[in-house]
Design goal:
The chain has 260 residues and is of the alpha+beta class. The chain has helices at 2-31, 56-70, 152-165, 184-190, and strands at residues 35-40, 48-52, 83-84, 99-100, 125-132, 174-181, 193-196, 200-202, 218-223, 232-239, 251-259. 25% of the residues lie in helices and 23% in strands. The longest helix is centred in the N-terminal third of the chain and has 30 residues, at 2-31. GO terms for molecular function: ATPase activator activity. Its main location: membrane.
C-alpha cells in the first residue's frame, strides 16, 4: 500500500512540475515582443511584385490593394475625433484618449492621386508597416551606439541630426529603416530610394495604443530609377537597439520585377 502511495506521489509531482514548466514557457512566449516588418501591396502569395507598365489590369491589381489598405489613413472609414497632430518623437500622454495621425496625403509621389507611382516609369512605391506588441518600446540609436552594419546613409543622417540638435534630440527618437539590394547585382539594379515621411518610424507612435483610431506607423519607399526587366531582391530592415536581426526581428524580404 505504501508503495502505491509513494508511486502516486512521485507521478503527481512529475505532472505538477511539468505543468509549471508549461505555464512558465507559455508566459515567456506570450510576453515575448512581436517585432516584424511587412509591406504593402502584398501579393496573395509569396513576396514577389511584378509590375508591367503597359498592362492596365496588372497596374490596377497593385493600386487597388493599396487603395484598400490605405483607406483608414485617408480617413475614408470615418475619422476618429481623438486623432491629433503630434510633435516629432513625442507620443500622447498615457492617460489621454488622443492618438497620433499618420498623414500620408503629402507623401508625393506615393499618394493616391498619382496611383502611388505605378503608372509612371519613374518607379512605384511600397509601404512598410512596423508591427510590435503593446508592451514594446524602442531603444533608440545615437552616433555612439550605431552598429557597424547599419547602412552608411543612416549613420550620416543620425550624425547630422545629433550635431545640429544634440544627443537628446526628439528627432533621434526614430526606429530607422533601410532598404537595400540583397546582392551586389541587386544593389546596382535597385537604384536610388526615397523614404517618406523620413528614414523611419517616428517615436510618437510608440508604444502601441489600444485606443480608437490608432494607426500603425508607415514608411513609404519610392524606387526612383530601378533597372527594368531584371528581378531585384530587396531586404528592408527596421533599426533599434532592441531589434535583433539575427533572430529575424524587423526584417522583410521581397522581390521586384518591372517591365515597360
Amino acid at each position: 500500500m505504501d508503495r502505491k502511495i509513494k508511486l502516486l506521489l512521485i507521478v503527481g509531482s512529475v505532472i505538477l512540475a511539468s505543468l509549471v514548466v508549461i505555464v512558465v514557457l507559455c508566459v515567456h512566449f506570450i510576453r515575448k515582443p512581436t517585432l516584424s516588418l511587412t509591406f504593402e501591396p502584398a501579393p496573395s502569395k509569396g513576396a514577389f511584385i511584378y509590375l508591367n507598365f503597359r498592362d492596365r489590369d496588372n497596374i490596377n491589381q497593385w493600386t487597388s490593394r493599396l487603395d484598400d489598405f490605405l483607406k483608414p489613413y485617408y480617413h475614408e472609414t470615418g475619422q476618429s475625433t481623438n486623432l491629433k497632430y503630434c510633435e516629432q518623437g513625442i507620443p500622447p500622454k498615457q492617460n489621454s484618449d488622443e492618438v497620433c495621425d499618420v498623414d500620408v496625403t503629402h507623401w508625393h509621389p506615393c499618394v493616391r492621386d498619382t496611383k502611388y507611382g505605378y503608372t509612371s516609369i519613374k518607379g512605384p512605391c511600397i509601404f512598410l508597416i512596423f508591427n510590435q506588441s503593446p508592451e514594446w518600446l524602442p531603444e533608440y540609436y545615437n552616433s555612439s551606439t550605431v552598429p557597424n552594419n547599419m547602412p552608411q546613409y543612416l549613420k550620416e543622417h543620425i550624425n547630422k541630426v545629433e550635431s545640429k540638435d544634440g544627443v537628446n534630440s526628439t528627432r533621434l527618437r526614430v526606429v530607422w529603416v533601410s532598404c537595400e539590394g540583397e546582392t551586389p547585382v541587386d544593389l546596382e539594379a535597385i537604384g536610388p530610394l526615397q523614404f517618406m515621411p523620413s528614414f523611419g518610424f517616428d517615436g510618437q507612435y510608440f508604444p502601441v495604443i489600444a485606443k480608437e483610431g490608432y494607426l500603425k506607423p508607415l514608411v513609404a519607399v519610392h524606387f526612383e530609377k530601378p533597372i527594368y526587366s531584371i528581378v531585384i531582391d530587396v531586404v528592408c530592415k527596421a533599426w533599434a537597439r532592441n531589434i535583433d536581426h539575427k533572430k529575424g526581428q524587423g526584417i522583410v524580404r521581397l522581390a521586384l520585377l518591372f517591365d515597360d
